[in-house]
Write a structure and sequence with these properties.
Elements: E1 3-5, E2 8-10, H1 12-16, E3 19-20, E4 27-28, H2 56-60, H3 95-99, H4 103-106, H5 108-112, E5 116-121, E6 125-126, E7 131-132, E8 138-140, E9 151-152, H6 159-167, H7 172-175, E10 180-185, H8 189-194, H9 197-223, E11 248-253, E12 259-265, E13 278-279, H10 293-309, H11 314-329, H12 337-348, H13 352-365, H14 379-385, H15 390-393, H16 397-420, H17 426-434
Parallel strand pairs: 6-13, 9-12
Antiparallel strand pairs: 1-2, 3-4, 5-10, 5-11, 7-8, 8-10, 11-12
Length: 436
């Protein structure tokens, strides 16, 4: 028997030959679609053009992935590798491979420890060279990574998740137009395959939070300042796309093979639009807090600082700044602000006169009553308890700018000192503070 279709003649063997669809990997034969469905071979479907490589269902776009896993809406656990895994990072012998983006060689030891890779696009950030960061994190300039060598197979996800990712219109080629961040992570590939679209979006946000804690909190601290208005140099959240900041993406690469899935969708609630963003240069590694008790406190302080930079309201930002100062002064317990200002002054000055000036200044910033009218004039009390806005209390814009510059100075004096002594235990650091 021969099947003749518009000039295409197939022998009996060719029609019965079991083929593997290049899209869904199903086994099929052309003969399966002869007879009652042979009209699909002609226009407008023109299945004759693809019958040797694709099953009819994929050609029509109605196929389902093989062995579709049951979808779950549970969160997908994502963790950073334990510190010991990072001891080889980065191997100077493999510097060239790492710098040029050879992921197989650069992350070989991470793959051996069953880590997967997450590749995220970076917006509002430019760099003309590879940026080496601790904990296996790399930032590559636009075009450095060869993403074409990575096979994307989203059909291993559930049908609904696959369809929703497709509906985002995010494609792999869009990532090539961004600097890219690469980070090794621990998570279950099976959980990823079963995850719902909302679980995938939560996973993108979680990975972005991890990159913040490992590197971007420090990068933001070094390159941004606490200002009355929004900071102009702050990068977008890792994963957000430049072409459509409403959309975000993460390319996840499996450890035992260079195949991957591309997650995409609206994972974040807001975008930064003011300014051009950050021109990133290689940061010094000694500015990244280590794993001592003081280092962990400093890392949390950097996280709070980074979150504060995203706040639009000057009033809210002022309250956050005082809360951050309160945390840094006494991380483990509650302390009245009249005692907190004494701690802050130790970081700022050794001069007795300047110390007294700071005591009075903090009364103005927090709670102070006018000696004549007995009215509350402290900024924090007016904002938190009376409902005033900062712009009502300080009408001059230049004075508000000076206020945030002053608060930034207090925060940095404390954080810089903690980062310098990040290896200490809390008890050792408290002893050091008492001697200041």
């Amino acid at each position: 028997m021969k099947l003749s279709i518009d000039g295409l003649t197939l022998s009996t063997y060719e029609t019965k030959l079991v083929r593997i669809c290049s899209d869904c990997s199903r086994a099929y034969s052309i003969l399966d679609y002869a007879g009652g469905r042979d009209h699909y071979f002609y226009r407008p479907t023109n299945y004759k053009n693809g019958c040797e490589r694709h099953c009819l269902e994929c050609w029509l776009g109605v196929s389902e992935p093989l062995d579709t896993p049951p979808e779950t809406n549970e969160s997908i656990g994502v963790e950073t590798p334990c510190p010991e895994i990072h001891q080889h990072w980065y191997d100077e012998k493999k510097y060239r491979s790492i710098d040029q983006g050879d992921l197989c060689k650069a992350y070989k030891k991470y793959f051996q420890e069953d880590c997967h890779l997450a590749i995220l696009p970076l917006s509002r950030l430019v760099t003309d060279r590879s940026v080496f960061l601790p904990y296996g994190v790399m930032i590559y300039p636009q075009g450095r990574l060869n993403l074409a060598s990575i096979h994307v197979d989203n059909k291993q996800l559930t049908k609904v998740a696959y369809s929703q990712i497709s509906a985002s219109n995010v494609r792999l080629g869009q990532l090539d137009k961004h600097p890219l961040l690469v980070i090794p992570l621990k998570f279950s590939w099976e959980e990823l395959k079963r995850g719902s679209h909302s679980a995938h979006l939560e996973m993108i946000a979680r990975i972005s939070e991890i990159t913040d804690s490992l590197c971007f909190d420090v990068i933001n601290y070094q390159n941004c300042k606490l200002e009355h208005l929004a900071c102009e140099t702050k990068p977008a959240n890792a994963g957000q796309l430049m072409s459509n900041l409403m959309m975000s993406a993460a390319l996840l690469v499996k450890s035992d093979a260079m195949n991957s899935v591309l997650l995409a969708g609206a994972a974040f609630t807001h975008v930064t639009t003011k300014g051009l963003g950050l021109d990133l240069r290689q940061p010094e590694w000694d500015r990244f807090p280590q794993y001592g008790e003081v280092g962990k406190i400093a890392a949390h302080g950097l996280s709070l600082y980074s979150q504060m930079l995203q706040t639009q309201s000057a009033t809210s930002k002022f309250v956050q700044a005082l809360s951050l100062i309160e945390f840094l002064a006494c991380p483990d317990d509650f302390m009245k602000f009249q005692d907190i200002k004494k701690v802050v002054s130790k970081y700022v000055t050794n001069c007795p006169k300047e110390h007294e000036r700071l005591m009075d200044r903090f009364r103005e910033l927090t709670g102070k009553k006018d000696e004549t009218t007995k009215q509350e004039v402290g900024l924090r009390t007016n904002i938190v308890h009376i409902g005033a806005r900062l712009e009502q209390l300080i009408k001059s814009r230049s004075e508000r700018e000076n206020l945030f510059r002053e608060l930034d100075g207090y925060v940095r004096a404390m954080l810089d000192h903690m980062i310098e002594h990040d290896y200490m235990s809390s008890e050792e650091y408290e002893t050091l503070k008492k001697s200041m």
